[in-house]
Each structure stands twice: as C-alpha cells, then as structure tokens.
Records
---
Amino acid sequence: MLERLILFDLDGTLIRSLNGFIAFNEAIYKTFGLSGDIRTVIPDGNTDPLILEDIFTAANMKVEITEEKWRAFAQNLYESYTDAIQRGLMRVFPLPGVLELVRKLAEVKGIYQGVVTGNLEKTGRLKLEAAGLGAYLGLGAYGSDSRNRNVLPGIAKERWAGVIGKPLPSRHCTIVGDTPKDLDAARKNHMRCLLVGSGRYAVEELGLLKPDACLPDFTDTKAVVEALLG
Ligand SMILES: [Mg+2]
C-alpha cells in the first residue's frame, strides 16, 4: 500500500483570517501592556514566538519574553481569538478548493494528513475548527513545540509514527506551504515540498525556488492529488 504523510501549513495555504491582527495585538497589550502591531512585520512562514520578537524589534522596544510571559501571551492570544471569532470580528475561512482537497485525501487509504505550522497549538486548532477543517486535521507540530520552523517537520513525523505504528521514510512525507520558509523546512528534513501561490508569494516567484511541485491554488483537486501522490 502506498503510504504518504502530508503536512500542511495553515495561514496562506489552507486558511485565511480576516482581522486576525486585532486579536493578536490585543493579546500583546494584555500581556505586556505595550501596543505592538503585527502589521509592522512580515509574519508569513514565521513561528508565533519569532513574530512576537520581530514586532518588538520593529518598534524598537526591548522586551524580555520570560517563560511566564510567554505562557500568559499564549493564553491571552487564545482568549482574544476565541472572543473575536465568537463576536464575528474575526473570520477564518478555508482557501478555495481546500475543503474538497482534504475530503478527497481523507478517502484515500494510506494517506495521512497533518499540520506543520508556526501557530501555537491551541490557536492553530481553533483556526482549523473555525474554518471547518478540524475534523480532518490537527495532529502535527506547532509554533508552541519550537520557535524554529525547521525542527517542526521532524516533530510532526515522530508524532505520526506513533499513530501509524511505524515511522514513514522522509521521502514519503510532503510539506505543503505558501512561503520559501516552508520549502526550507522541507529541505532541511529531506521531505518533499509542494508550494501554493495562495498566500503572499506569487506562484511564479515560488516556482523559481524549484520545489517538487508548485500550484497557483487548490481549485483543481485532481491536479493537487496528482502533485501530492505522483
Ligand atoms: Mg503560511
């Protein structure tokens, strides 16, 4: 049987959030008493811990993020996102073709779908739920596992080995993302990589990086499945 582990990035790959910055900035204020703004940095492909550091650096603020502060920020972020989603202030939706794709992949025996994302686990899972993807995806590695994106694929692979009952070879694992950082993480882990032009980077730009496959979006389910399993 053909066995493959597909590890999806979230933002820009599977989902897009409207007004997510409001909750993020609110959590910064609640935790640190400072007005940091996520819109002053390029968060794409980065982990939440590094995004937070970037925001303070961009504002020339010297902030020591202790373990305690970090835990408080994670909790505040979860609460702010939950509140913003419930009040309809923030919306999370799946990108075109994504629902069809994960449903299709869920039907194929031997295909395992997981995540590798810079989101913290609690907020990442919240976004997946809000986008209607929670029933299909969740297990993997998150920004709360490490601030270094390049170690996340290995963590996800190990967790999946526990579920599958054996480790899959790296060449049977594919990272699916929307930024050069996703590709970098795949390469560092000797995994395949499919890049999609539904985020900040245009498909032409991503194609120049020579990933194993590159698509403008996920609207052609058959083409995505072929790119993933071919
Ligand atoms: Mg992304």
Note: Residues 27 and 33 are 9 Å apart (CA to CA).
---
Amino acid sequence: MKAEDVKVMIADESHIKYVDTILSTIAAAAKVRGTGIAKRDPEYVKTKIREGKAVIALYGEEFAGFSYIETWENQEYVTTSGLIVPEKFRGLGLARKIKHQTFMLARKRWPEAKIFSLTSGAAVMKLNTALGYLPVTFADLTHDEKFWQGCEGCVNYEVLQRTGRRYCICTGMLFDPNQKMCMEAAKRELKSEKKSFWKRFFKSTND
Ligand SMILES: CC(C)(COP(=O)(O)OP(=O)(O)OC[C@H]1O[C@@H](n2cnc3c(N)ncnc32)[C@H](O)[C@@H]1OP(=O)(O)O)[C@@H](O)C(=O)NCCC(=O)NCCS
C-alpha cells in the first residue's frame, strides 16, 4: 500500500458513518499506549464533521485516519485533536498529511489564534516542531476549564492535579502566529501542501 492511494480530505456528512470506528480506534490506541483517554462523545465528533472542522483519510472505503479542530477561551486558542491513524496505515506519512490539513484549517478560520498541543507522543512532537510549535510551560496554554477536563480520563491526571496544573507527563507546545520563527517554520513545512490542499478544500465546500 502507498500513501498516494489514501485520500486525505475535509470530512463531511458522508463520513458520519465512520464515527464509531474512529472512536473505537482511538480508544484501542490509548489502551496500547497506556495513557487513558479523553472521553469523546460521538455526537460531539459528528458536529465537528458537520461544521467542516474535521479531516479524514480513506483508503477506498476503509478508514485510514482522522483529526479535528477545537477552540478554547473565546477562540483565542485552537487545538488539533484526536489524531489517529490505524496501525495498518502507520509509517506512510498520513499523520503528517492530516496534521497539515487540520493546521491549515485552524489558521484559515482563526488566523489570530494560538495553536497549542499537549502531548507525550514522539510523532506528534515531531509534527508540531516542523510546523513551528515551540515547547512552553503550561501557564502559556489555555486556561479554559473545558480543555483541562479532557485530561481527567488520563492515567497521569493525579500528577497534573498534584502540581496545581503546572507540570505533568505531557509536553506543552505552542504555535504563536505573532512570532516570526513560528510562521517561518510553518511556511517551510507547508510549502508543498498549500496549493493542492486549498484547491481540494474549496472544491469540497462548493460541492
Ligand atoms: C501517532 C500517529 C498518529 C502517527 O501516525 P503515522 O501516520 O504513522 O505518522 P507519520 O508516518 O505521518 O509520521 C510522522 C512523523 O512521526 C514519526 N513517527 C511516527 N511514529 C512514531 C513513533 N511511534 N515514535 C517516534 N516517531 C514516530 C515519523 O518518523 C515521522 O517523522 P519524520 O518525518 O521525521 O520521519 C499514529 O502512530 C497513531 O495513531 N498512534 C496512536 C494515537 C496517538 O498516539 N495519537 C496522538 C495523540 S497525542
């Protein structure tokens, strides 16, 4: 199987049927990693899809990857969340493609927003770094309670609580559009993607 055989696109109503598969794949991956899981309501994910805030990868009709975007603190902060690629499709560069698309969606919709990530995953750290995210302390992330409630299902939640939400196992990373070095890194990383992505994006929103 080649990466070119997998289509990565903005999800729409026709992809609602994949929501159960998406959520069970995320749950199974969290079990393997031993991280616990941020509970995701199927209705919430469906809404993200309907709002054009999700990206899906398909190999024919087969589910091959997913992620969506969320806003926090009156859209001052954005996260690209729930990134998942089923084992069978890993190592093909699909997570990078999906991350590019969710990142560009976020930049397009909320150009002033800071985009952040809280992760313990090496792959995600690499992707974030390439896009210009910088490591930061938790104080630089959103203070939105709803975001932090997502940590409650994690096996390390006790650490976060004990440190008064200042430290935990995950690394905080932040893309600040006001920082030149962040913007320059993102431009470099997205150079090859941009044209084809927006062509497809406008096509899918006009259909
Ligand atoms: C993390 C995940 C999305 C990566 O998907 P993928 O399609 O295999 O990733 P890609 O092929 O696009 O690789 C992206 C980069 O990460 C690196 N990478 C991938 N998996 C890695 C791993 N397990 N450890 C270290 N680096 C890894 C790749 O080498 C690549 O970097 P490079 O371009 O510098 O070589 C996938 O393994 C997954 O779904 N895991 C379970 C869920 C999860 O951890 N989600 C992230 C939540 S924070």
Note: The pocket of coenzyme A is lined by residues 29, 33, 83-85, 90-96, 119, 121-124, 126-127 (CB under 6 Å).
